[in-house]
Amino acid sequence: MVWIGTLRMKLSRPAPRYRPLDRDRCSHSSLDQLLAADPEARAVWLLVQELDFAAFHARVKAVEGHPGKPPFRPDVLFALWLYACLRGVGSARDLHRRGAEDLPFQWLCGGDLPDYHTLADFYSDHEERLRDLFVSHVAALRSQGLIDLKCVTVDGTKVPGDAGAENFHREPTLQRHRAEAEAYVAAWEQQRVDVQGLSARQRAARRRAARERAERLRRAVDAVHAVQQQRAAAHRQDPPPEEARASETDPDVRRMKFPHGGFELAYNVQTVLDLRNELIVTTTVTNQQSDNGLLRPMLEQVEQEQGSKPQEVLADSGFVDADDIDHLEEAGVRVMMPPKNEKKELRAGKDPYAKKRRDKPRVAAWRARMGTTPARETYRKRCGPAERVHAWMEQRQWRRFRLRGLGKARLEALWQAWAHNAGRLLARAVSAVAGAPPVRAAVS
To answer: Are 131 and 102 in contact (CB under 8 A)?
Structure first.
C-alpha cells in the first residue's frame, strides 16, 4: 500500500534542520555600526556638537565627588528633540515610544532612553537658554556667510492653540468659575477636602492643579478686561461694540480669522527669514490678530539679537503701518511692501502709488518706489520663500500648539525654527556641489 510506504519514510526520515531562532541572543554589532544607513541622525549629532551648552551645565546639581543621581546630558536631550521635530514627532510620549523602536533615536541617546517626563520637561523649559543658543547659532551662520541680512522677509501665520471653544467665556461666566475655583483652593488650604484613599503624591498634585486653575481663571478675567479696553480705544465708544471673551485653559490665546474664512483660538507666529538660503533669523509669537504694526518690532528684535539691521525687508501689505515705514526708512532699511488696498484701488482707477494727504516724505517715497517695475520685481521674490517656511512646518506635522501660554508658544515656535534651519542645512549639505563651503551649525 502506498500509505504504508509513506508512513515508513516518515518514521525513518530525520527531522529537518533550520537556522536557529534565538531572540535572547545578544548582537555583536554596536549601535554605531547598525546606523550606517541613516546619515541624518549623524548630521544632527554633528550639528548639536557645535553648540555651547554651558548655560545648561551650570544648573546641574550632581557634580563629581558628591552624591546624587546624574541627569541626562543636555546635548543628548536637545538632539533627540531636534531629530524628533524633523521627523514630525511632537509628543514626549510619542518620542519615548519611537526611542524604544527606532534605531536613530536609540543611537542618539546611546541606548539609554530618557523617560517621557524628562523629555517633556526639557521641551517645555529652558526658553531663555534655548533662545540664547539660537542667537549664537544664527551668529555662526552669519560668520560663515550663510546669512548676510542683506534681504529678509517677514511673514506671519496663525497657528491654533491648545484651547477649546467650549472654554471660551464672557466675564460673568469666568468670574463665577473663578469664585468656585478659589473656594475649592480655600477648602484645600483648610483641609476640608476628602482625601481618603489618596496618596501624598496624589494629594499634592490635586492641590497644585486647583491652584493653577484658579490662577488661569484670574488671568482669563484680566485678559477680558484688556480686550475690552483695546476695543473701546479702537472704536472710541463705551461700552465696547462686542463683549469680550477669554479661554479658561489658555488666557493668552485669541480668536483669530483664518484664510479659509473660519475663526479659531490661535496665536500669530512671526518669522524673519534670510532670503539668500531661506534660513530663519528669528521668530516670535504674539496674540495680536493682525500683522499691522509688527514689522518694526520684528526687525528691532533682529537688531537686538544680531547687532545689525537688515538692509532690505520684503513683507506683504498686511504689515503696512506708516509710522513703521517712516522709522525703518530713516534707519536705513529699504522697505519693499505693496501699499494697502493696492489691487482694489487699481480696479477702481485710482493710483495707489500717489502721495496721500497724510504721508510723510519717507512714506511718500516708499509709495512711489513700489510703483516702479524694479521694486515689483524685487517684491516677487518674497512669496515663495516666505510661504514655504510655514508649509514645511506643516509637513513636519506642526499644525497646532501643544503647549499653553504665550511664553510656551514662543518656545514651541523656537523649536520649529531650530528644525527648519537644521533641515535646510542638512539639505544643503546633501546637495552641495564640489567646492561649496562646509555647513556648520554654530560655534561653541
So the answer is: no
326-358 pLDDT tens trace: 999 999 999 999 998 888 888 888 888 888 888
Q: pLDDT class for 2, splitting at 50, 70, 90? A: very low
Pairing state of beta strands 334-336 and 312-314?
Answer: parallel
The pLDDT, as a whole number, for residue 31 is: 65
The pLDDT score that the predictor gives to residue 54 is: 84
Return the C-alpha cell found at 282. 528669528
Q: Is the pTM of this model over 0.70?
A: yes
Q: What interhelical angle do 406-431 and 39-49 show, nearest 10?
A: 120
Task: Give the DSSP letter of residue 191.
Answer: T
Where do the structural domains in the chain lie, given as residue ranges? 30-124, 148-162+265-401, 165-247
Q: Which CATH number among 3.30.1360, 3.20.16, 2.30.30, 3.30.420 corresponds to the domain 148-162+265-401?
A: 3.30.420
Name which of 371, 366, 365, 336 is nearest 352 in CA terms.
Answer: 371
Q: How many CA atoms lie within 13 A of 268 on its CB side?
A: 22
Question: Taking 70 as the threshold, does the pLDDT of residue 430 lie above it?
Answer: no
Specify the long-range contacts of residues 391-396, CB closer than 8 Å, at least 24 apart: 392/420, 392/423, 393/420, 395/88, 396/85, 396/86, 396/87, 396/88
Nearest to 296 by CA among 250, 261, 329: 329
Rounded CA separation 421/275 (Å): 13
C-alpha closest to that of 412 among 53, 127, 118, 80:
127
* Tens-digit pLDDT profile for residues 167-212: 898 988 999 999 999 898 888 888 887 877 888 888 888 889 989 9
